[in-house]
Write a sequence for this structure.
């Protein structure tokens, strides 16, 4: 992805590409008929866009069940982020990404990673513009297993299939995790306009699940980072700075901290009983 993305940017700079967008997908997907027509002609402040998706079930019954559960988790996690008010509530699957060329240049393109480069690219792009979640027909992705990389769809399907084969449940984050995240983000936005770090900490202490949230923020170095930022900017500028700090990676780190301390994951059939 890195090599081809950089070649695409070079072609754009040399005038060989008229579009504002560079699309990135994989060879094992089936794009919708309007794949190259879905994007807006003008980016209008968007640094990236993400296509809708669905997985194509394949393999035996366990594998088909595994991809169904994993897709449900992917949608659940992004819905949880959106309901919490996170600006990082979008899918980060590599097969679905379109990038605005100038934003790609600003973040220096795809990071040099063996896996997860899609997640980290979108994490950076969300800080230089908005990430647009497109509507319409989905990109269809194969629901295959894979050992090629340590995480991602293929590895997740393989892991979930193994759990099901041994009669064990696939566990996902409890909804309370996203409630706590939403409370935190609300208090961060209040802090952006008050600049009072002690008031911010007292509101954290008064909230639900205060002990686990406070200890997780301390471990992440959040309080010192917020106080330092408030000494430099305020208001809307500080809010933007705080939301950039609490990015997709740190949000996931916070979620893991809450899970590991108190808010333990639950079987997916308990969290999403409609499955």
């Amino acid at each position: 992805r890195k090599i081809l993305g950089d070649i695409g940017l070079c072609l754009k700079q040399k005038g060989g590409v008229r579009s504002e967008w560079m699309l990135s997908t994989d060879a094992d997907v089936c794009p919708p008929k309007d794949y190259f027509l879905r994007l807006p002609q003008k980016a209008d402040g968007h640094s990236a866009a993400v296509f809708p998706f669905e997985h194509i079930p394949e393999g035996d019954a366990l594998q088909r069940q595994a991809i169904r559960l994993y897709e449900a988790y992917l949608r659940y996690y992004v819905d949880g982020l959106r309901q919490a008010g996170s600006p990082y509530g979008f899918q980060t699957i590599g097969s679905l990404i379109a990038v605005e060329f100038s934003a790609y240049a600003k973040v220096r393109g795809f990071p040099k990673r063996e896996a997860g480069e899609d997640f980290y690219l979108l994490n950076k792009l969300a800080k230089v513009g908005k990430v647009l979640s497109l509507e319409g027909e989905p990109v269809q992705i194969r629901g295959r297993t894979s050992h090629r990389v340590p995480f991602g769809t293929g590895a997740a399907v393989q892991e979930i299939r193994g759990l099901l084969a041994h009669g064990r449940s696939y566990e996902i984050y409890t909804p309370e995790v996203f409630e706590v995240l939403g409370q935190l983000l609300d208090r961060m936005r209040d802090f952006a306009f008050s600049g009072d770090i002690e008031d911010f900490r007292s509101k954290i202490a008064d909230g639900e699940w205060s002990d686990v949230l406070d200890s997780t923020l301390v471990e992440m170095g959040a309080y010192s980072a917020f106080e330092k930022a408030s000494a430099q900017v305020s208001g809307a500028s500080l809010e933007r700075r705080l939301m950039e700090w609490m990015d997709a990676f740190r949000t996931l780190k916070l979620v893991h901290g809450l899970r590991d301390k108190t808010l333990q994951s639950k079987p997916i059939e308990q969290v999403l009983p409609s499955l």
Summary: The first strand starts at residue 21 and ends at 24.
